[in-house]
Prior knowledge:
By secondary structure, the protein is mainly alpha-helical. It has one domain (17-222, 236-464): MFS general substrate transporter like domains (Growth Hormone, Chain: A), CATH 1.20.1250.20. The chain has helices spanning 19-51, 55-82, 91-108, 117-145, 153-184, 196-220, 236-241, 246-276, 282-309, 312-330, 338-373, 378-406, 417-426, 429-442, 449-464. Helix 5 (153-184) crosses helix 11. The radius of gyration is 22 Å and the shape is globular. Residues 1-6 have low confidence and may be disordered.
Amino acid sequence: MSKSKQDYTYVDANVKLSLGERLNYALGDFGYNFIYYWISAYMMIFLTDSVGIAAGAVSTLVLVMRLFDAFNDPIIGSMADRTRSRWGRYRPWILIGGIALGISVALMFAARANWSNGTKLVYMWAMYLIVTVASTCCNMPFGAMGGVITSNAGERVKLSGMRMVFANIGLQGCGVIAIPLITLVGGVAADGSYTANGYFLAVLITVIIGIPFLVWCACKTRERLQPPPTQDTIPLTKQFGCLKNKYIFICVLCNFLAGIVMYGKMTMITYYFAYVCQDAGLMTTYSLINLVGAVAGAGIGADLLYKWLKNKGRVGLFINVVSLIGCIAMYFFLATNPVWMGLNFIVGLFAGASGAIGYSMIPDAIDVAELQTGVRCDGFLASFVSLALKIGGAVGPALGGAALAAFGYVANAQQSSSVLTMLNASVTLVPAFCALLQVIAYLFYDLDDAKHGEIRDELARRRQV
């Protein structure tokens, strides 16, 4: 049965958000990334070097489990769209999923080197499955909720900018403290390697810190933009019909490429510092510089570029041209050279702006889908963007793991020149190639501020009649 007019109360979602409202939402991404960073950056090297599992087996794990989200994400997205509670559609998922994520990530790093090989493999697969599902239940509805807090395109840039500021503080902030924290809890062996117990205790500390921020986000954020008053059920055919617009496709493609860069680079750069630079402690310096750049880009750069260009596609194109040049230049220097770290700051600056603009595009594309079909399914459509990011996040580390095996990587040993060259290329030239592909994609994004304003006003008119 469709909703009656009496059951529906129109809420104007075209609002300017206070700093507190943006902060309440953004803190959720801090908590998520502060916890999930360990999976992105350290899970592979933990399993290969501290637990003793072959790189090829870990690479297969990452690829299969991330691809599992091809079924997981749209299902969770559709379920979140159908959720009806006094808390809204997405907040209950963030609360429950966030707590489950923290617990499962800590348990992921509870594996031990003295277990039998079979036990290690079974535990690795089981725990990563749980981590994957918990991550989706938390992060996918979180992304969808960003589009229903406000319908204003400019405010969405600011909201996404604040989100990316705290995502990067969580992500790179954990990168800054990771090695010192492992050292602090006594996780360094006599030969200088990091112990499994050291990883576990460090992860447990960050999980205890991160979970309350996810709880705060779930409790304090307000969902304003509701489905149309006549929308009670969402037929599957109409859900898939919403995918038929080029803006969603561009968001999906660019997030896939961003996933390759983000998760692939985070995985491989730990090897890069350890073996190419022979100084794992440089991870702290790298993360701190990248953090400062990303926060500045997300918090200030994205909004300034959008106000200047009035078209998110043009902003994305400009950002990726600069990133392309910067990444190519980094290939010719080592991280021990100040020039490399300076370029790292520039790349981080524009990566932060890229994330803010990219996430603000998603609800705009969902608005276009609603205009075309009359159906609003933020969770379902956001799930495909999230799915693309995760598939990219599977492909990047999996290719990295495959490259390690193909080039003859040997854990805790002197590496060959071909391995060292491969590691250098994986953190510079691969991101450059992905930036080039994003430049091409953004050439087709023509949804400017004026065009989106007309769409937003038409959708508001439909809700009031």
